[in-house]
Amino acid sequence: MTTTATGRAVPRVDPDEVSALAREAASDPAWEFGSFFLSRFLQLEISYDEPEQTCTVVLPYGPHLCNPQGSVHGGVITTALDISMGHLCKKFLSPAVTIEMQMRFFRPLTGTGTCTGRLIRSGRRIVHLESRMTDDQGRLTALGTGSWHRLDAV
After folding, report:
1. Run of H or E including 134
2. Is residue 91 packed enough to be buried (19+ CB in 10 Å), middle (13-18) or exposed (0-12)?
3. Percent of the chain with pLDDT over 70
4. Rounded Cα gap, residues 138 and 42, in angstroms
5. If 0-12 CB within 10 Å is exposed, 13-18 middle and 19+ buried, where does residue 112 land?
6. Three-state DSSP class for 72?
7. Number of Cα atoms under 13 Å in the Cβ half of residue 59
8. CA proximity to 139, closest of 117, 92, 106, 90
9. Distance from first CA to last CA of the chain, Å, rounded?
10. So what's the pLDDT on residue 91?
11. Handedness of CA 37, 38, 39, 43 (dihedral sign)
12. pTM of the model
């Protein structure tokens, strides 16, 4: 175990484990929704709720994802939230790209995080979405809102 500047105990990063994870993620040439390198490396679990039209992304905790304070880095959290919104667009509307995204962080994430992306408003070209991340105790950890440009409108 390593102790952070805040006194939190965090497991050491095992370089062999992280290298094996990266090699495994890179060994699959698939480059599609739900199965591209970054989602494999982060070990994301992606699922959809058809009736609710939501996309859920589960981000498992790993010490290699942490900042020096021992919590999951905000950039990793942002990535998971972004992926939940992008997959939501692809599944229920069309492929789309992020135009802008705003983040709010409410508490450190020190375990598994679960993001749920939802449509706020869908236009012909621009889609507005949100994604909320909760920790393994169901507490709100982060909120991302974003605007996306639909690629079927290009």
Report:
1. strand 126-134
2. middle
3. 90
4. 21
5. middle
6. strand
7. 34
8. 106
9. 51
10. 94
11. positive
12. 0.88
For the stretch 41-58, pLDDT in tens is 899 999 999 999 999 999
Greatest extent of the chain over all pairs of C-alpha atoms, in Å: 51
Assigned token pair, 93: 């509307």
Cα–Cα distance measured from residue 4 to residue 79, given in angstroms and rounded to the nearest whole number: 24
Specify the DSSP element, H or E, that contains 64.
none
Cβ contact 154:93 at 8 Å: no
The two structure tokens encoding residue 102: 């705003």
For tokens 């390593």, the residue is: 2
Q: Are 92 and 117 in contact (CB under 8 A)?
A: no
| Residues, the chain | 154
What is the spatial distance between Cα 26 and Cα 6, in angstroms, rounded to a whole number?
34
